Amino acid sequence: MTENENGGLTTIRADDLLRVIGDIPDVTRFETGLWSLDYAVGFQNKWGIPLRSLVELYGPEASGKSTLAYYLAGKVAGERGIWIADVEGTLDKWYVDDVTRVAGHTGTIRISDYVEVKKKERVARPHEAQLEDSIDAILDGDYGAGVADSIGAFTSIVQRGKALGERTVGQEAKTINDASKRVSCWLRIADDPKLYVYVNHTHPNIGGHGFDTPGGRKKKYLSNVRLWIRRLESNIPAGSGNFVAKVAVQKLKYGASGKEALIYFIPGFGISKEMTDVFDCINLGLANRGAVVSLGGNKMGRISTLAKRAEEPGKHADTFQPFAQALAAERRRLDEALK
């Protein structure tokens, strides 16, 4: 440590002064391109989500959980594959393809087989096997990210074998605990930094005080990042179905929790970076939202016009470039303040 000009302490990062030895990978962060999210999960002037991380992404129904999970997986994986354990059994392959394309993903998307053949009959594969496929892909160099969707829908082999109404207390939580340990271990020993995301739901605690997420407590301990997402504003513009969600960082192992981010969703399209930039600028006071959005004294268009153009960002790059430039300048200001 050395004292800086403001009287505070600054950590010295020079390799020749580092006293820690051992096979310890560096903390690598990956920027998602979503300004406020990268800031919220960053630390000091290092922006972006920390890799080699188990991320628990949870919230109420229709809040954008799965869309954000696939977007993050697509961003991190890039040209490599994504392996998804769709234990809900409701995945739309075209939807996943669209959402990950928007994120820039060009690799293969592998879904764990939901059905297997036993004694010439098609039967549902155990959720344990589907989850195991996705987790073990972490050690496969052809894959860059994995997703389990969702932990709340996970049903153990033991519970499947019981008659309706019989109780199997704690079995699912135990299995998710084991899965979380394996995810953490595989992420730690993988040749290159990767990401694994748990999509999860929320349920009220007994007594009505707060809420919890299914799957036991160890997933919380072993998650490096825990993100709580919920809708902030719906139908923007009116009748579109588009919405803005707020993401609150509930846990950030390599940094500080408590920050929040905004993300703009377009159903059937995915996450719009362009409209997320617009709302980040509005939230930061860099732009004004009225009948017409204005930025730096210039009228940029109505929200409805901007949202429509965001569905074809390649054709309307000039429309959204000023918002990206304003956010880049704000980032430089924040980074300079941390020096």
Provide the descriptors you would attach to this structure in a database record.
339 residues, 20 strands, Rossmann fold, 32% helix, 3-stranded antiparallel beta sheet, 25% strand, 9-stranded mixed beta sheet, alpha/beta
Explain what the structure shows.
The protein is globular. With 339 residues, it is of the alpha/beta class. The two termini are 15 Å apart. The strands form six sheets. Strands 7-6-10-11-5-14-15-16-17 form a nine-stranded mixed sheet, with helices on both faces. It has ten helices and 20 strands. α2 (65-77) packs across α3, α4 (127-136) packs parallel to α6 and α8 (273-284) packs across α10 (317-337). It folds into two domains: 29-271, Rossmann fold, CATH 3.40.50.300; 274-331.
Low-confidence stretches: 1-12
- Which architecture of the largest domain would the CATH scheme give at its second level? 3-Layer(aba) Sandwich
Helix content: 25-40%
Q: What's the β-strand tally? A: 20
Round the mean pLDDT to the nearest integer and report it.
92
User: Into how many domains do the coordinates divide?
Assistant: 2
Give the structural class.
alpha/beta
In CATH, what is the homologous superfamily of the largest domain?
Answer: P-loop containing nucleotide triphosphate hydrolases
The amount of beta strand, in percent, is 25-35%
How is the CATH topology of the largest domain named?
Rossmann fold
